[in-house]
Design goal:
This protein has 17 helices and 18 strands. It has a nine-stranded mixed β-sheet, sandwiched between helices. The two termini are 45 Å apart. Bound molecules: xanthosine-5'-monophosphate. Xanthosine-5'-monophosphate (XMP) binds next to helix 12. The site of xanthosine-5'-monophosphate (XMP) has 15 residues, from helix 12.
């Protein structure tokens, strides 16, 4: 078995850190993110690190307590000929730490710029003389350390790219990881060549390896997995099933906050995929009883998590009486769920709070998280390799608490009904109009307030439904989707015509940040 070589991305809090990681993986190299203040543990413990990228970040190196790297680490990297590429803040930090000059610039530069390639170099090899790049910075490198060479400049940035072949240190002020930078992927590709990677992050081999690993870890033990019908838990289940067969038990809990017809669909899908031990628990009344009338977002989520945990715990106990003890609890956790980074902590926190509920029996089980190293698109690729059909792997993410977080304010039966009907219309039409597959998510949200309207000849005072549709690569950042007016008009007409209690539909045109994808 070939050992996987790794590139380490040191995170200084950039919103693009996950994007760098994904781009490197697209180039078939395993990349992992590590916070700037814990690089030494990872570097010295995990071995086989062949390259380092320092991310951008919101701080200035002139601030007190600005994040930086110890000279021990830099010396170690240079002595062991491990190449380092600094991006934006990373570019400035490297220049500063090796003895160059970094100054505050007159104004922040944000947006496109033209990079002039002014010298032959390994990093910018194969690029045309002028390329469009994406800038986002305050400070500027104005003087280079000894032995460093300027290889690119822009109008406002005289040292936009540098390299030192002697130390194997490279820097770019702009962001090669974003799509707005032309030849950005080529620059990263050049850097990976400089590191000498063998490019062995190939999903097909990795799937085989994962199945073997699960088989080795689990042996003849029993595994419990809470299935939701979503992509992640289904793919995790399939991997485990391939490895250990029917010692895998799936528990599918109907929370009452699922979409119309969803419980039936999920059950038949799980059967279709060949799982034998599928245990269905209809806890919908219990969820509703506890949540109707609750208004505060955090309280809703807390109650939901508690009931979910109780239902799972009780089911596990029953199953153990029948089948014997479980040794593992499997979860569909994916890479972004477990990596905290400056700009991405929120989702992580949320998902953690969901999972951290006290479940004495279940918490005592060993965790099995076969997807913990993968991004969503990699999970979808694994699904295809495993022969899972598109109606399963192509589903949009759907939050665990489901419609609960898409009904703002107090939960009522009326709002829940509206949410169910609106979801059906939005999903049906998005698929019919061919917009579904291009989106990360599209869904309606029932707002907490009512608006005045006219229906027939009468004045109405009814709920407002907001449509949210976003494009995203990993949910850390997202852009609202510029959907055709005709499609939106059609959806609005259907919602107001077919759903009683709604007289207005609005479209959300905010990006993340500053908004989040979900409303609650
Ligand atoms: P936000 O709203 O934080 O969402 O921009 C980012 C992504 O996470 C999903 N999400 C959740 N998924 N349990 C989940 O399993 C949750 O509680 C939860 N909240 C948000 C959201 O749909 C989006 O894809």
């Amino acid at each position: 078995m070939v050992l996987l070589e790794k590139l380490l991305i040191v995170d200084f809090g950039s919103q693009y850190t996950h994007l760098i990681c994904r781009r490197v993986r697209e180039l078939k190299v395993l990349a992992e993110i590590v916070p700037w203040d814990s690089i030494s543990e990872t570097l010295f413990e995990k071995g086989d690190i062949r390259g380092i990228i320092l991310s951008g970040g919101p701080r200035s190196i002139h601030e007190d307590n600005a994040p930086r790297l110890d000279s021990d680490i830099l010396n170690y990297l240079v002595e062991h000929s491990i190449p380092i590429l600094g991006i934006c803040y990373g570019h400035q930090l490297l220049a500063h730490l090796f003895g160059g000059r970094v100054e505050k610039s007159e104004k922040r530069e944000y947006g496109p710029a033209v990079l002039e390639v002014i010298s032959d170099s390994l990093l910018l090899r194969g690029l045309p003389k002028r390329v469009r790049v994406w800038m986002s910075h305050g400070d500027l490198v104005t003087g280079l350390p000894k032995g460093f060479k300027v290889i690119g400049k822009t109008e406002n940035c005289p040292i936009a790219a540098y390299e030192s072949l002697d130390k194997l240190v490279f820097g770019v002020q702009f962001h090669p990881e974003v799509k707005h930078t032309e030849f950005g992927l080529k620059i990263l590709d050049n850097f990976l060549d400089i590191c000498g990677f063998r490019r062995n992050w190939v999903m097909k081999d990795i799937v085989e390896r994962k199945i073997e690993e699960i088989r080795r870890i689990v042996g003849n033990s029993r595994v419990l997995l809470a299935a939701s019908g979503g992509v992640d838990s289904t793919v995790a289940a399939k991997l485990i099933h391939k490895a250990i067969g029917d010692n895998l038990h799936l528990v599918f809990i109907n929370t009452g906050f699922m979409r119309e017809g969803e419980a039936e669909w999920v059950l038949s899908m799980l059967k279709r995929l060949g799982f034998k031990n599928v245990h269905y628990v209809d806890a919908s009344q219990r969820f509703l009883r506890n949540l109707i009338g609750v208004a505060h977002p955090e309280e809703k989520r807390k109650i939901f998590s508690r009931i979910y945990a109780e239902a799972l715990e009780e089911t596990a106990k029953e199953l153990e009486k029948k089948f014997g003890k479980f040794e593992f609890l499997a979860q569909g956790t994916i890479y972004p769920d477990r990596v905290e980074s400056g700009a991405t902590g929120k989702t992580t926190d949320k998902i953690k709070s969901h999972h951290n509920v006290v479940m004495p029996r279940i918490s005592a089980l060993k965790k099995l998280e076969p997807l913990a190293d993968f991004y969503k698109d990699e999970v979808r690729e694994i699904a295809r390799i495993l022969g899972i059909p598109k109606d399963v792997w192509g589903r949009h993410p759907f939050p665990g608490p489901g419609l609960l977080v898409r009904i703002l304010g107090e939960v009522t039966k009326e709002k829940l009904e509206i949410a169910k009907k609106a979801h059906k219309i939005v999903e049906e039409e998005a698929k019919k109009w061919g917009v579904y597959d291009d989106l990360w998510q599209i869904f309606p949200v029932v707002l907490d307030s009512k608006a005045v309207g006219v229906k027939g000849d009468a004045r109405s005072y009814e709920y407002i439904v907001a449509i949210r549709a976003v494009k995203s690569e990993d949910a850390m950042t997202a852009e609202f989707a510029r959907l055709p007016w005709d499609f939106l008009e059609h959806v609005a007409r259907r919602i107001t015509n077919e759903i009683e209690g709604v007289n207005r539909v609005v479209y959300d045109i905010t990006h993340k940040p500053p908004a989040t994808i979900e409303f609650e």
